[in-house]
Amino acid sequence: MSGLREVFARARAEDRAVLVAYLPAGYPSVDGAIAAFTAMVAAGVDVVEVGVPYSDPVMDGTAIQEAAGAALAAGVTMPDVLRTVEAVAATGAPTLVMSYWNPIEQYGPDAFARDLAARGGSGVITPDLTPEEAGEWIAATDAHGVDRVFLVALSSTPTRLATVTAATTGFVYAASVMGVTGVRAQVSAGAPDLVARTRAVTDLPVAVGLGVSDAAQAAAVAGYADGVIVGSAFVRRLLGAPDPAAGVAAVRELAAELAAGVRRS
After folding, report:
1. Total domain count for the chain?
2. What is the mean pLDDT of residues 52-77?
3. pLDDT of 184 over the 50 cut
């Protein structure tokens, strides 16, 4: 459907994992976020997740909540998210949206898939949408050639894994911890087993997210997963920067470190 599978196939041929990076749109500003995303791609990020700021982020940790809250307070809307996607997709990196279902439902699922595709977006990750409730979304993404990424978790049974992966395109998002997002001292010991169990029911690439914060962790995850997803660590770099330019430099530095990590597994 999109360039996602091509990126994963190329990385596999290079014997490495794909580096996927997340930031919320609109922080520290719409243009500031675009500058940060662009710097990350230049430093080695393969796939980008543009987060939709949302008022009830039940799965997000404190760092993402703070940045997304600031974006909402500044008036960031879905058109700003789509403008961000268009600008980032112009770098050549497959660009996805990460969004809770409510903003997409309010926008209109078919309209959102249409408008995302028109701006060069590759797909959407919907962490709180289950396949059983995704009939309209599945139809919309199929109609407009947009990948849809669902999540599997440590608690997922074999039957559940089969159900989720059957509805997924692009890649499978394996949530390596039970709980909210955020950097951790170590990635869950259950992550390798979750990846193995997921691969038993699908040929899709499997990317691990929730908790990766440095090159060593990225290298460890790259040893058993097709992709390494990093979000909160990037957001924290932006939050801790004294000004937007310093924030861009900080996320560029982290992206380079993580890109080296996924290549030394």
Report:
1. 1
2. 88
3. no
